[in-house]
Amino acid sequence: MARLKPLHEPLYLTAVFRQVGEAYLTPRNTELKYSREENPTVLNLENKLAKLEGADNALAFNSGIAAIATLYFSFLEAGDEAVLSMEGYGTTIELARLIGRRFGVKIRLAYPRAEDIVEEINERTKLVLIETMTNPTLKVIDVREVAKRCREVETILVVDNTFVTPLLYKPLKDGANFVVHSLTKYIAGHNDVLGGAILWNGEFIHDLWNWRRRLGGIIQPFDAWMIERGMRTLEVRFERQSKNAQAIAEFLSEHPKVKEVHYPGLEDDPYHEIAKKLFERDLYGGVVSFDVGNESNAIVFLRSIKKIFPSPSLGGVESIVTYPVKSAARYINEEQREALGITEGLIRLSVGLEPLDELLEDLDKALEVVK
Ligand code: PLP
């Protein structure tokens, strides 16, 4: 039979590969024999992710947190310190603290501004983890400034680029050592599969690969195939979501029931200038946060919204709202939340692909009920 040439890479739904004769080596000199180590469908996803992020290497995981856990296990040792953004994904902070407590690593939380992060870095700092755009108040961190300091003291800089995607910004070109993603969000994009990735430039790090193998966090082949499928529409989805988010942010900032809007695409947003400096396009992402005054207003709003689901994720084709005080921000204390502007009235909206006028109507109707 003539060799078939499928348009897309096939799905290798297999746990094992037959071992006959010589070992089958991948281009990174790892052996293809068992899918906890390597799988061609996973490798295909990794190649595409690396291309998208402008990286030489990629490892894919079964969730964003599995990727972050593998970095922690790979690099942190007793006596080290790590600096994390105080406004970060809750489980990223929670896991660092638990590992830190168990293995003797001091975790310092810094306000998500380059000068405050740099202030916390010292000669014991082994790793710094920041998010390009924070969750939920969408502060944009000047990654270049943090990278400069990390280079001086030879600290590993990890940038979680989930919220902005490589379409807006590629932290590796500005000096980050590793980029991590929750692929579950924009990159997969359909709220139906979980995944994570670590990307970097330079040599392939076999020790990191070995930590993935030891912790068993590799993505399953079917999930990798789903994510690669979702990636094919990333650009059109992200562009539409960002444009709709911009229009929604402008609408909300004029609305009498809304106290404050956080969105770096607004010209008077305190992070607009940093975003303009870093981002490759005149787009600012698909998440908007806004304050409806207090907790009871927030609850009334969440109960009244009809077409937008209250649900704990972002980046998918469906619009989703969350209440950050009770979700992402529950791992920091009240004082820290206050300093960050994570108020009792704050709502986070991830804009999907629904028609803009339907979303605006839904938001307007739910805001009518707010006092
Ligand atoms: N990083 C960010 C910025 C996130 O928002 C999330 C999840 O919401 C994660 C990491 C964790 O990813 P996952 O849920 O895929 O484990």
From TrEMBL:
A molecular function (GO) term: pyridoxal phosphate binding
Superkingdom of origin: Archaea
Keyword tRNA processing attributed: no
Swiss-Prot/TrEMBL keywords: Pyridoxal phosphate
Alphabetized InterPro entries for the sequence: Cys/Met-Metab_PyrdxlP-dep_enz (IPR000277), PyrdxlP-dep_Trfase (IPR015424), PyrdxlP-dep_Trfase_major (IPR015421), PyrdxlP-dep_Trfase_small (IPR015422)
Gene Ontology biological process terms from the UniProt entry: cysteine biosynthetic process via cystathionine; transsulfuration
Needed cofactors: pyridoxal 5'-phosphate
Pfam families from the UniProt entry: Cys_Met_Meta_PP (PF01053)
GO cellular component: cytoplasm
Family label: Belongs to the trans-sulfuration enzymes family.
Name recorded for this polypeptide: 371aa long hypothetical cystathionine gamma-lyase
Lineage, top ranks: Archaea, Methanobacteriati, Methanobacteriota, Thermococci, Thermococcales
